[in-house]
Amino acid sequence: MLEMAKYQGRFYEEVFFPYLDENNIGHILHLGDYFDRRKYVNFASLKSNKEHFIQPMLDRGITMDLIIGNHDTYYKNTNEVNSPDLLLFEHDAINVITEPMVKEYDGVNLALVPWINNDNYADSIEFLLSANADTCLGHFEIEGALMMPGMTSQHGLDHTYLKRFDKVYSGHFHQKSELKNIRYLGSQMQFTWSDYGDEKYFHIFDTDTREMLPVHNPLTMFEKLFYDDAKETFETISNKDYTKFTGKFVKMIVVNKDNPYWFDSMVDKLHAANPLHVVIVDDHKHMDLMDDKELEGVEDTLTILEKYIDGLEIQGKKKPLFELMTSLYNEALDEHNYL
Fold it and tell me: What are phi and psi of 43, to 5 degrees?
């Protein structure tokens, strides 16, 4: 989508590379999911990636280590066929990491771990238990980690395999979170509605202090506009700054609508700002407005699925069935969020 590509381009042009220039940073460590689609990539996306990221990086003499994520791999059970290897091989400045390794950065050993699957599971576990490093960075799916607000991962790697490290930093989930010594850094920009309201950052690893320093990305792609004529006046509606919705996905949530003229006025002013897409939610019971007490009784989709599977009278173990349903649900969620 053209507007999404423009949004990502703005991040690199206005936020990311200017910060690297100002602070004389010459190396990037990417924690996976460089490309989004596992099965394919379109030429428009490749062109955008080259113009907004690859070429500016090469022009500055910046190098990059790229750890493979699950979205980078064609097959689910091996990292052998992956898009970065196939599409970025011509650039000597880019090193694609497909197997666990320890690499030294300014005298600091870092354990780097790509996506763990059936093919590399045993070697990855052995590496995690013996790597000569205090800090680990990778693309992990950890059981119990926060996937998105209100939803935790029901399967994945046991966090105890990582307990020997002082700190672990991971890509994979878009939402920032912490579990024991593991810190999910979250995506550096907004990609779907699941990212709404979540402050986005890229991070700088200080090799002197071994601290991960967040750098805020102020640019957003998803916005909400609330209409409540019990709390508004025609003047406040007229004087709102609607330009912040230009070129963005917008949900207009109607709390109270007793004055149709005021409502139509807000809708007209919103559309005049040329948002990319507008959805009007005319429902005061919308999830965005529920307070904590109302939310206590709400079960997420995976919880409902788990209870349903637990209630089935079937032979054999139910956990593999739930893991399969979870995998299918997450794939469907990814497809839906990008529509």
Answer: -70, -30
Q: How many CB atoms lie within 10 A of CB 315?
A: 4
How is residue 68 written in tokens? 């493979």
CATH architecture of residue range(s) 2-217: 4-Layer Sandwich (3.60)
- pLDDT tens for residues 47-92? 999 999 999 999 999 999 999 999 999 999 999 999 999 999 999 9
Q: Is the CB of residue 20 less than 8 Å from the CB of residue 60?
A: yes
pTM of the model: 0.81
**Closest listed residue to residue 182, CA positions, set 170, 196, 200, 173:** 170
Cα torsion 38, 55, 44, 46 to 10°: value is -20
- 264 by DSSP, 3-state: which? helix
Which regions of the chain does DSSP assign to beta strands (E)?
Answer: 27-30, 63-67, 94-97, 101-105, 108-113, 135-138, 146-148, 151-152, 167-170, 177-179, 182-184, 200-206, 211-217, 222-228, 249-256, 277-281
Instruction: Assign 82 to helix, strand or coil.
Output: strand
Residues 113, 143 contacting (CB under 8 angstroms):
no
